[in-house]
Amino acid sequence: MDAKDGSAAGTAAREPLKISARDAYRLWARSYDDAPNAVISLVDRHLEIPSGLVIDVACGTGRWVERTGGFGVDMSIEMLARRPGRVAQADARRLPFADGVADITLCILALGYVWPAEDAVAELHRITRHGGLIIAADLHPAAIAAGWTRSFRDGGVIYEIENRPYRPDGAVDLYFGEPERAIYERAGKAEIAEEVRRIPAVWMKRWRR
Question: Which of the listed residues 27, 52, 118, 186 has the most CB atoms within 10 Å of its CB?
Answer without folding.
Answer: 27
